[in-house]
């Protein structure tokens, strides 16, 4: 019996990650080689590939790999598709690779789960199977975005469309504990996403949240605006899931537009193509700095278990990064830190 | 007496724009040369420069220009600063260049007003002086953003932090009428900014707004996501001012970060600098495609008069574009179109 019944909290020495091998746009074509590449680089980690046994086996064969003491297959007969409504995936696909991978976290056979599948289903099933941490009302999705001076963590990115100030306070605590754990920052700064720096700005929920954050023991920076995300003004940016999702998707759209336009301009004629060739090493260096694959892996926070959501379109490199994030969260005791802070908060309130 | 008492609705043949010459980070150093440049190119327009007489005169002299039949000065003794709280600017600075410029629209001496000053003050004063159009409860800020295939109009960008479905419906009508007027599109497509394409996505306000939009006579495309803004999926994107402001500022931050990183990479060493020199014409072409100056000029919609807000940091080119937008809105009867649609709507409801 673990403190707070947090699944897979102990056994840091021997970390096991359950991978929903069928999830994502490319399924085992990405998840299996990513797992193999990760294992080659990380001899201390074990991986369980969850999904259709024969499909996973043939993918392993294609990579001249086989199961062994650190890599095993856990069969699951069903697959949650990207179009499955979360409620249906939860109710009707009890032997899906996604659900079985989460079950392994619940039972303690794995310390974390990584899936590139349907976000809504992953959230619904994780919440149902793992349950919430004490005193946390809502789970949140936290992701990393690049900034001028490094990166920042933003949450919630879409789990909650309507939030109360208390929900946002809890998100702030979870985000701060995530950053303090995986980045070894004792007191990460927290910004509240708003439409102006002044206290009088924003809607009622945001104003009340600022009040709660000021009274909390978090390192509250104050209100931040959309551009502060990419300026890297704070270590953590807190917002409700509607706003966070719009900010994230808008960023994806803008980055895609800029990338497409740059390509169009360099492909315009023979001279611009030559210029592109000359500039290629520089452009590649730039690209690697903003490469979204490096930031792949969103944390589903607030659950009694570590669950990482990879982008559905992730390639092998990106999916490997999501596995790495899961391992880092286990290794640095993210769940324990969140739990401790939440008990401090509830003791303070009591 | 004009229909609906819309100030400056008539006299399209002889358009007069009142410019808050003192507004913005650079005041007359930008507004005066922008006005002069605009007049050179547009012989059919009259401009009234509103502000401190001597300051404007000396700026005119610096450009070897003088007042004349198409360019005059209207003295105003006060200036609204960027830090003035809107309520104080409204109450205490009754002879500010901003207020006097808006007064000229109210009195019919000008057909539109352009200001690069304090957005909150501009909104508060415009609303107080000009009043709202019939059946419109809230003004909205609409701006143009570049897309892969042209551009799109997004509103609200920050005037309203809490919106009802009816407010959002009114924004949709105003946005659609703006686009139909200035872009001569008979039935522009309207997208509702949400966190998923499916009907079940989003918060209650958004779901109810979708229902109103489906029942309206607008060309409602359905839900759009953040990335659809830059894909140019619809002609108009509707959202509340909190979400819109975050999307806009996040975009500004990301664009700024990408631009800075590109510059950093090209300035890294002598080889990258040479590559940058070779790539310069291509990079400049790219830059001009996403040049925010081309999109300068946000419309304050819903008022009984045309008011354009220029970015505070606008340069001459950017400010000229804001003047051009004001003239286009007058020329194409934006206010009349919005009023007509709103009466249709209220007749339909009655």
UniProtKB/TrEMBL annotation, chains A, B:
Classification via SUPFAM superfamilies: Isocitrate/Isopropylmalate dehydrogenase-like
Keywords: Acyltransferase, Cytoplasm, Lipid biosynthesis, Lipid metabolism, Phospholipid biosynthesis, Phospholipid metabolism, Transferase
Pathway in which this enzyme or protein is active: Lipid metabolism; phospholipid metabolism
Pfam families in UniProt: FA_synthesis
UniProt-listed Enzyme Commission number(s): 2.3.1.274
Subcellular compartments: Cytoplasm
Superkingdom of source: Bacteria
GO biological process: fatty acid biosynthetic process; phospholipid biosynthetic process
Catalysed transformations (reactions): a fatty acyl-[ACP] + phosphate = an acyl phosphate + holo-[ACP]
GO molecular function: phosphate:acyl-[acyl carrier protein] acyltransferase activity
Any GO CC annotation of this UniProt entry: cytoplasm
Uppermost EC category: transferase
Family per record: Belongs to the PlsX family.
Oligomeric and partner information: Homodimer. Probably interacts with PlsY.
Known function: Catalyzes the reversible formation of acyl-phosphate (acyl-PO(4)) from acyl-[acyl-carrier-protein] (acyl-ACP). This enzyme utilizes acyl-ACP as fatty acyl donor, but not acyl-CoA.
HAMAP family: PlsX
Name recorded for this polypeptide: Phosphate acyltransferase
Source species: Sulfurirhabdus autotrophica
Taxonomic lineage from the root: Bacteria, Pseudomonadati, Pseudomonadota, Betaproteobacteria, Nitrosomonadales
Gene: plsX
């Amino acid at each position: 019996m673990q403190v707070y019944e947090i699944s897979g909290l102990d056994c840091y020495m021997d970390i096991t990650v359950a991978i929903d091998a069928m999830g994502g746009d490319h399924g085992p074509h990405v998840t299996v080689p990513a797992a193999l590449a990760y294992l080659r680089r990380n001899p201390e980690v074990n991986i369980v590939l969850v999904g259709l046994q024969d499909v996973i086996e043939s993918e392993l064969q294609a990579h001249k790999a086989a199961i062994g003491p650190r890599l095993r297959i856990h069969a699951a007969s069903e697959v949650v598709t990207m179009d499955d409504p979360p409620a249906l995936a939860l109710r009707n696909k009890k032997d899906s690779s996604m659900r079985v991978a989460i079950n392994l976290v619940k039972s303690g056979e794995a310390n974390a789960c990584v899936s590139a599948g349907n976000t809504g289903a992953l959230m619904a099933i994780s919440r149902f199977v793992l349950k919430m941490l004490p005193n946390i009302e809502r789970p949140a999705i936290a992701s990393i975005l690049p900034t001028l001076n490094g990166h920042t963590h933003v949450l919630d990115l879409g789990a909650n469309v309507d939030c109360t100030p208390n929900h946002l306070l809890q998100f702030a605590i979870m985000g701060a504990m995530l950053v303090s754990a995986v980045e070894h920052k004792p007191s990460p700064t927290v910004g509240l996403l708003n439409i102006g720096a002044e206290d009088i700005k924003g809607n009622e929920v945001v104003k009340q949240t600022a009040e709660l954050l000021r009274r909390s023991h978090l390192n509250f920076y104050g209100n931040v605006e959309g551009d502060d995300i990419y300026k890297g003004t704070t270590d953590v940016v807190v917002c409700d899931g509607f706003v966070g999702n719009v900010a994230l998707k808008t960023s994806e759209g803008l980055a895609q537009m800029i990338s497409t336009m740059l390509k169009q301009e360099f492909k315009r004629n023979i001279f611009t193509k030559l210029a592109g060739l000359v500039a290629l090493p520089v452009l590649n260096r730039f690209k690697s700095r903003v490469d979204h694959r490096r930031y792949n892996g969103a944390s589903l926070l607030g659950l009694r278990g570590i669950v990482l959501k990879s982008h559905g379109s992730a390639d092998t490199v990106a999916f490997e990064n999501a596995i790495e994030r899961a391992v880092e969260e286990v290794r640095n005791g993210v769940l324990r830190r969140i739990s401790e802070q939440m008990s401090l908060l509830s003791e303070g309130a009591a």
